[in-house]
Amino acid sequence: MNTTEIFLIAMAIIFTLPWLIWRVGRTDYHAPLVVVQIVTGILLGPGVLGRFWPDAYAFVFNPAVVQSLNGIAWWAVMLFVMIAGVELDLRQAWVHRRESSITAGLALGTPLAFGCLTAGLMLLHDGWIGPRAMAWQFVVGIGMACAVTALPILILLMEKLAILRQPIGQRILRYASLDDIAIWGVLALILMDWVRVGGHRVVRSGTDGPVAPACAAGRHADLLPEHRPAHQLDARR
Q1: CB burial class (10 A; 0-12, 13-18, 19+) of residue 108?
Q2: What pTM was estimated for this model as a whole?
C-alpha cells in the first residue's frame, strides 16, 4: 500500500474509532466525545499501541503518515488559537472587569503556580527535560499544563447541567474564556525562539544579561579578547 492509502486508513481510525466508542458504548454521560477522543489518541500513540502492537503501529503511523498528520494538527492548532475567547462577551467582561480579572487571574495563577512548583521538584531528578529545552521552559510548561482550561469539556458539561445560558453559566464561561486567552500567551512565551530574538545582541564581558544566546556568542566571538589578534591586543594596551 502506498502512503496515501495508509494515510486515509489512519484518518479513518482517528475520526471513526472514538465516535464508535462514544456512540455504541453510550459514554456521553460519563465521558463526552471530546474526552473519548483524547483517551483514544493516547491509546493510539507510541506509548500504548506502539509498545504492545509495534508492527501495527509502524504500518499505520509510519514517518510519512505522521508527517502528514502533523501538518493537519499544526493547522488545527492555529485555527484553535484564532477562535480562542470567541465565547467571551466583551461587554459583560468590561462591565464586570474587576470581578472577572480577579477570579480569572486566581483560576489561572493558582494551578500555574502549583504546577511550576511541582516541575521545579521534578527537575531535581534527571530524565524529565529534553537536551534542547531550558529549565524555565519545562517549569512554565508543566505549570501551563496544570492551568489550561478545558473549555470544550466545560461547555459540554454546562450544557448537560442546563446552566450554559443561565447567569451562573455565562459567568463561568467568562472566567474560562479569559483564562483561555491568557494561557495561549503563556504558550507563545514558552515556544518563542529566544535564541533568534537575542541573536542580534553583542556579547560583552559579563554585561549581556542573565542568559547569553549561543548564536550570539558564536557570531561575536571575535569581539572577545581571547579571539583578537595579538597586534590588536597590543594596540589596546
Answers
A1: buried
A2: 0.59
